[in-house]
TrEMBL record:
The protein's name in its UniProt record: ATP-dependent RNA helicase DbpA
Annotated motif Q motif, positions: 9-37
Signal peptide: none
Domain DEAD-box RNA helicase Q: 9-37
Family: Belongs to the DEAD box helicase family.
SMART domains: DEXDc, HELICc
All copies of domain Helicase C-terminal, residue ranges: 237-383
InterPro entries in UniProt: DbpA/CsdA_RNA-bd_dom, DEAD/DEAH_box_helicase_dom, DEAD/DEAH_RhlB, DEAD_box_RNA_helicase, Helicase_ATP-bd, Helicase_C-like, Nucleotide-bd_a/b_plait_sf, P-loop_NTPase
Length: 463
């Protein structure tokens, strides 16, 4: 089905409330992205939509605005459910919704994901929540234990739906959908549109509007380079590229967990500020890794494709693929991590002998044949990528009424640390993270560990 609506270029034209327009302005949103311009009027009009668009297209803000626009803040019951494939993405989606809801009265957004004790989520559910963001497994667990009541649910969002199907969540999605009201609005977002998504769409909504949004102009600023790997060790090849290019930050994608960990260990051994992200890590270690990389206290992230989607890094200088991804859609997601927000990006692919068939398939999307280049040799004066920042973890968070301003106040109270020496701050439910200049890390730890914040003592440690 399709519907013709007048094109809008800015958020004020679609009838959003002043509180949402103010939040958009404070968050730096200006013109709508193509995804927002095409989907938001339909969603605000109550239509079901299926949106096919690449990572970084602005879809989160689109469905967040649609949810918040019709939220009844006086009704403390779940009115919207957003399902995501990973905890990392769920946390980022929840944070985006909170940011857009900051000028509304008392909007409660709750994440329901694995990797954290259920008892904390049970306590939060008992206090009521307007919007739930979670992973299918944990949401279904709460449903089966009768901890969730969807009687007031108005909106169901399936974010990164293709990824959820790839991860085997078909049965969980079917069971969750069956327990939601039939009168709900359905919003489904997917980077690809295989037959499995067509089938899922039919199960969720038979009258959804299908929107296929072309890649945005910012993605055209990505330069792709392909290097012949031959018999060269992949870890050595990655090292030479990083030394030659000297990016501010970089994600190195690997096809296996073992390869990701091996390359990370090699880079660390050579003096690089590098971290691994893969499925063998405990959830708390994954959370800490994400915070360190996004805060700039680690400059290289070596990851399997668990991080290809949902990792919210506004500016990423470079991505390196160690061999072509298992499928071409995943390759597209990898390179789409760089060159965002209008910045230029570099995507490097290391091509081995086993990649020949996939290289020929990939070449179909290029105007000219792909030219494999010889690996660069880094200048002898090049230094390993190291960070000038350290991330500290505090033993308190939102449940302790801790706010970013409280942490800044604690770090600057003796006038020895400047605001310029304090980087990003992230406050979660039970933990808080603050990134400080390496030269000030020892003093920052002393300030937190030897004094009180808001009358309470907290412990801090460097990650």
């Amino acid at each position: 089905m399709s519907k013709s609506l007048p094109a809008a270029s800015n958020f004020a034209e679609v009838g959003l409330a002043e509180a949402l327009l103010k939040s958009l302005n404070e968050a730096g949103y200006e013109q709508m992205t193509p995804v927002q311009a095409s989907s938001l009027p339909l969603m605000l009009g109550g239509d079901d939509v299926v949106v096919q668009a690449q990572t970084g297209s602005g879809k989160t803000a689109a469905f967040a605005l649609a949810i918040l626009a019709k939220l009844d803040v006086t009704e403390f019951a779940p009115q919207a459910l957003v399902l995501c494939p990973t905890r990392e993405l769920a946390e980022q989606v929840a944070e985006s919704i909170r940011k857009l809801a900051k000028n509304m009265a008392n909007v409660k957004v709750l994440t329901l994901c694995g990797g954290v004790p259920t008892r904390f989520q049970i306590a939060s559910l008992e206090h009521g929540a307007h919007i739930l963001v979670g992973t299918p497994g944990r949401v279904l667990d709460h449903l089966n234990q009768n901890r969730l009541n969807f009687a007031k649910l108005q909106t169901l969002v399936l974010d990164e739906a293709d990824r959820m199907l790839e991860m085997g969540f078909q049965d969980e999605l079917r069971a969750i959908v069956a327990k939601t009201p039939s009168t709900r609005q359905n919003l489904l977002f997917s980077a690809t549109y295989p037959n499995s998504i067509v089938q899922l769409t039919q199960q969720v909504s038979k009258q959804a509007q299908l929107l296929k949004v072309a890649e945005t102009p910012t993605q055209a600023k990505i330069s792709q380079v392909f290097y012949q790997l031959d018999d060269t060790d992949s870890a050595y090849a990655v090292q030479q590229i990083l030394l030659s290019q000297q990016p501010q930050n970089c994600i190195v994608f690997c096809n296996t967990k073992a390869e990701a960990q091996r390359i990370t260990d090699k880079l660390i051994g050579k003096g690089f500020s590098a971290l691994a992200l893969h499925g063998d890590l405990e959830q708390k270690d994954r959370d800490q890794t994400m915070v360190q990389f996004s805060h700039g206290s680690a400059r290289v992230l070596v990851a399997t494709d668990v991080a290809a989607r949902g990792l919210d890094i506004a500016e990423l200088d470079m991505v390196i693929s160690v061999n072509i991804a298992h499928d071409l859609d995943t390759h597209t997601h990898r390179i789409g991590r760089t060159g965002r927000a209008g910045a230029e990006g570099l995507a490097v692919t290391l091509v081995g002998a086993q990649d020949d068939y996939k290289l020929r398939l990939l070449e179909d999307d290029f105007a000219e044949p792909i030219r494999l280049q010889a690996l660069p040799t880094a200048p002898s004066s090049s230094k390993p990528l190291q960070s000038d920042w350290v991330t500290l973890q505090l033993s308190g968070g939102k449940k302790d009424k801790l706010r970013p301003g409280d942490i800044v106040g604690a770090l600057t109270r003796d006038n020895k640390l400047t605001v310029q020496q304090i980087g990003k701050i992230k406050v979660q439910s039970s933990w808080a993270f603050v990134t400080v200049a390496s030269s000030a890390a020892k003093h920052a730890l002393n300030l937190i560990n030897n004094d009180k914040i808001k009358g309470k003592r907290f412990r801090a440690r460097a990650l």
